[in-house]
Design goal:
Blueprint: H1 2-6, H2 26-41, E1 44-49, H3 55-66, E2 71-76, H4 83-93, H5 102-118, E3 122-127, H6 135-145, E4 155-161, H7 164-169, H8 175-178, E5 181-187, H9 192-205, H10 215-225, H11 229-245, H12 253-261
Parallel strand pairs: 1-4, 1-5, 2-3, 3-4
């Protein structure tokens, strides 16, 4: 479609970029640093941010980077799973035959995590979209980590979700879990300068170094997206499609307005 028209050698804003090719905003750098700390020290980490802010991208980047060393990351983006199904999924990821009941699966998972640490491998359990976790599941996760109270921690637990996750954990019924949190971070939106650099970074990675978006159009993109990467991606891609349809070489303010009107 528009890639050849603008001179791209590959689609821009790909989701499968390797970690070293991602744009590193100040927030992204700080988040990945804190996630590394949580993994290395086997902490419970709480990561919040608005939809599309880049939480999952940061999780993927740290998992791919640390996964090359002495770390193992077990990821789930389905917070509606029952405790039994979640534990069984993690056990299968560890290549351990999962028991049928939730209690037995929790026990075997603990043993597997301890064994992994004793073998020199640190495991990080990641639950994305964790703001959707039911209170009963949060209590289950507390129970999973409870054996750490009188011993050195053996695995990391990372809960990532929308800002309401922080409100859920501040409720009295979640205090026991909240008190064990060692790392907290809220990923905010990008600044105006970061938004411009983010778009240019993705254009350059896709093979285009000449300007494709006017300053006025970029300002409109920033104002509409509020610096949220996912919204920027969708809006810029749509403007490129419209510019291609009208045989334009530049995305201007009128093109952005057309995209927003759709």
């Amino acid at each position: 479609m528009f890639e050849q028209h603008f001179g791209f050698t590959q689609p821009p804003f790909r989701k499968d970029l390797p970690p070293h090719s991602l744009y590193r905003s100040q927030g992204h750098v700080e988040l990945t640093t804190r996630l590394r700390l949580a993994a290395e020290r086997c902490h419970i980490a709480i990561v919040t941010g608005d939809a599309g802010a880049g939480k999952s991208t940061a999780l993927r980047a740290i998992a791919q980077t640390l996964g090359l060393g002495g770390f193992r990351f077990l990821y789930t983006a389905n917070p509606t799973l029952s405790a039994r199904d979640l534990y069984r999924q993690w056990l299968r990821d560890l290549r351990v035959p999962p028991p049928f009941t939730a209690a037995e699966a929790r026990r075997v998972l603990r043993e597997a995590l301890v064994g992994s640490r004793e073998a020199g491998k640190v495991t990080a359990l990641i639950v994305d979209e964790a703001h959707l976790l039911a209170p009963a599941m949060l209590e289950e996760l507390r129970m999973l980590t409870s054996f750490e109270m009188d011993a050195a921690p053996v695995f990391a637990l990372i809960l990532a979700g929308h800002p309401e996750l922080a409100h859920v954990l501040s409720s009295p019924r979640c205090q026991a879990l909240a008190q064990r949190v060692g790392v907290r971070y809220h990923l905010g939106s990008m600044t105006w300068d970061e938004t411009k650099a983010y778009v240019l970074h993705h254009f350059q990675f896709a093979g285009v170094t000449h300007p494709l978006v006017t300053d006025g159009a970029m300002r409109q993109v920033f104002q509409h997206s509020h610096g949220t990467p996912r919204t920027i991606n969708r809006l810029i891609l749509r403007t490129l499609e419209l510019a291609y349809c009208h045989q334009q070489q530049l995305v201007d303010e009128e093109t952005v307005e057309l995209a927003l009107a759709e």
